[in-house]
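Exercise 7b. Backbone tokens:
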């Protein structure tokens, strides 16, 4: 869906170099932040810059997040952007993204868990924090489990073949 809605890059006339809308770019940032559980640093700065520079179509953003099953992870990214940079966001963000107040409160408290533990990247503690937080931030735990089992199988096959 991102690809269909993307636009050719004005400076690079190659057909595989595209530009996302600010709304899709925010969802894309949120998905990457979810994978790495990195709701700090450059993900937040990039989100803040997009939110500050563009007139965000909040309905389009909510649709894009829903289409990608990324409402919770987008909420996590935007909540931390507001917390760190005082970025202006709609007060009803959780309602727009169809996230319950309970889930919103849980997300706000849990997104910095990895930073509190401060595990080394890809260490056992880092992986444990991912296992604990991914289900909290996932909109579809069944699809998450399916994806992670396939990923694990791929990594095991990679390890055995090397």
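Sequence design result:
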């Amino acid at each position: 869906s991102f690809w269909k809605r993307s636009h050719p890059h004005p400076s690079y006339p190659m057909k595989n170099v595209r530009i996302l809308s600010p709304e899709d770019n925010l969802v894309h940032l949120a998905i990457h932040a979810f994978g790495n559980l990195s709701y700090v640093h450059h993900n937040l700065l990039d989100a803040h810059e997009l939110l500050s520079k563009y007139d965000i179509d909040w309905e389009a953003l909510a649709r894009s997040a829903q289409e990608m099953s990324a409402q919770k992870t987008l909420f996590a990214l935007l909540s931390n952007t507001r917390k760190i940079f005082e970025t202006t966001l709609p007060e009803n963000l959780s309602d727009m993204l169809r996230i319950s107040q309970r889930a919103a409160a849980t997300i706000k408290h849990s997104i910095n868990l990895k930073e509190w533990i401060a595990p080394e990247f890809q260490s056992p503690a880092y992986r444990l924090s991912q296992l604990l937080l991914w289900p909290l931030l996932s909109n579809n735990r069944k699809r998450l489990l399916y994806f992670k089992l396939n990923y694990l199988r791929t990594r095991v096959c990679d390890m055995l073949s090397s």
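Instructor comment: The mean pLDDT is 85. Residues 62 and 96 are 6 Å apart (CA to CA).
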